[in-house]
Amino acid sequence: METGKSDKKRIVLKIGSNVLTKETDHISRGKIEDIGNQIVALQDRYEFVIVSSGAIAVAKQFVNLESNGKEITVKQALASIGQPHLMRIFQESFRDLGLLTSQCLLSYSDFEREQSKKNIVNTINVLIANNYIPIINENDTVATDEIKFGDNDKLAALTACLLEADLLLIATNTNGICTKESVENKTFKTIDEVDDLELLNNEIVSSTSKHGTGGMKSKVQAASITQDCDIETWIANGLEDNFMVNAINNTVPFTKIIKPVYNE
Ligand SMILES: Nc1ncnc2c1ncn2[C@@H]1O[C@H](COP(=O)(O)OP(=O)(O)O)[C@@H](O)[C@H]1O
Ligand SMILES: N[C@@H](CCC(=O)OP(=O)(O)O)C(=O)O
Question: Which CATH architecture group holds 9-257?
Fold first, then answer.
């Protein structure tokens, strides 16, 4: 498949709902500006594809839908209400920084059909070649159980593989993945670099945060997808200002999930 890549390193940046809300009940324009500022600072060397959650969180700001007993259907309706608002905030904030945005809504089944995969790659490459930043979210209206059981971590990993990205950077609300013991006694010691996902899975605790869906487990599952296509996954604290620049410069704690190192 023609990838149409430039000389720049391609980063797929996944932004979780907690980062976008800065753990409040409102989408944070300040956080979206922070992300835009970092893209401006890095754009000479890197090109970006964003996978952004937050549609449900933004809708919850101003609507309380009657439940029909099916929690998933309510979430799908909330996502439908919130998505255009989310995109508007991205578009306005990024435009002020001279950045152009576009929206792509994808489903998991799109990654199983050759023609859809080609269309995704071609569309995104044309967008990037014309300096548009694709902002991807799941097409929640047609999703089956993903809103409940998975989340955008896996979607971001599949996207990174399809687009032959150089890096998947998952922005969440902790300094990467911490040792289980340190989470339990609240001292939070980051695991800096790891290749063995089974070992990593043993460090995960079952908690998720306020707006989060899959917790750390789904991030490790995402990393197993990217590992299979030779892409590193970094998990960094998106609540901090300048988290991408700082991770690239290695000045903050974060988790780097590298390709498996085999002992010959
Ligand atoms: N070992 C661990 N280290 C850090 N966080 C962990 C760990 N195990 C589970 N978690 C939980 O995973 C959460 C992040 O995932 P999630 O709530 O889905 O956020 P997001 O919206 O960023 O996807 C953390 O806030 C924490 O509660
Ligand atoms: N597509 C949904 C994603 C749901 C979600 O919470 O995802 P995440 O914050 O990545 O755990 C949305 O935009 O709200």
Answer: 3-Layer(aba) Sandwich (3.40)
